Amino acid sequence: MISKFISYSGLAGAVLSALLVGDLARASDADTDRPGGMDNAIISRYQGSTLYMYGSNNFGTAEIVFMDKAKGKPVLQTVEGRISNKLYWAPKGRSSLEVFRNYQSALTAAGFETIASCEAAACAKLGTDWLVKHMPANVAWQAQTSEADRLFDNISNGFHHISAKKVAANGTVYVQIALIGGDDNNKKFPGRVPQFVQIVEPVQLDGGKVVVNASVIGDSLKRDGRIALYGVLFDTNKAVVKAESNLALEEMAKALKADPALKVFVVGHTDNQGNVQANTVLSQKRAEAVVDMLHKQYSVAMDRMQAHGLANFSPVANNTSEEGRAKNRRVEMVVQ
Question: What pTM did the predictor assign?
């Protein structure tokens, strides 16, 4: 039996296929994809499967199973990004293990790192099945059906799970797949393996929509000696201040002009993605770009500001999640 995969080169590129040559015959309405749905560009369905439900969220949170190595048990960790959910039914006659092995092989071939995985009895022993059991019921599907609520009712019937990640230049992609053995008593899908596939991709937010005003900046500098600002935006790995940052820069300038004696360090911070030396250079250039704009565009005297880059040496959150990394990517004003 031969598996066929499409090579994966870049997260925005080719479709990663978890395909096994199978029965493509369409014998009933249950073999017809739900209108408007299609496979995600990251990973396809098991060949011959039917796309029964789908749902997406341009930016939201999802719970991914991670293995807590210290405790030796699986835990749920919240990640955020563009979320894609699919529910497939495999062709009749395919076992849950057969389908599962194809997904495992495809993810490995594409360079994904497994962060948690279990099969059948091992899932029950670890409790992974109970962590995942209610996930399909909590998804906002395009067209909700009762199958999602009952999908993993019989978790003793060949339940398998894998979650994996792949780090790219713009963030981390997470793939989570859970499936269970086919139920011969299912009148609509007798003996067919259901597959819950969830993908979370990094997404560049349309930022700069909420800005801290000058009075808040001034009060924070007097009270705490520093303030973290998230309205100053840059493209990934670049030090050019984006146009959406103008409102934040204007408020920073107002705060400085309201207190003519105030001098500040403008400090750039990054998350821990990439090389620390490169991040040090990047954070320094970003801080210098902010100082340059405050001087040239808003007439703040250069001798009142000093630019410094601290890379990821001073995090305010854990870098293990995208939410934490977003908090660490910031510009700070610090009183000299």
Answer: 0.64
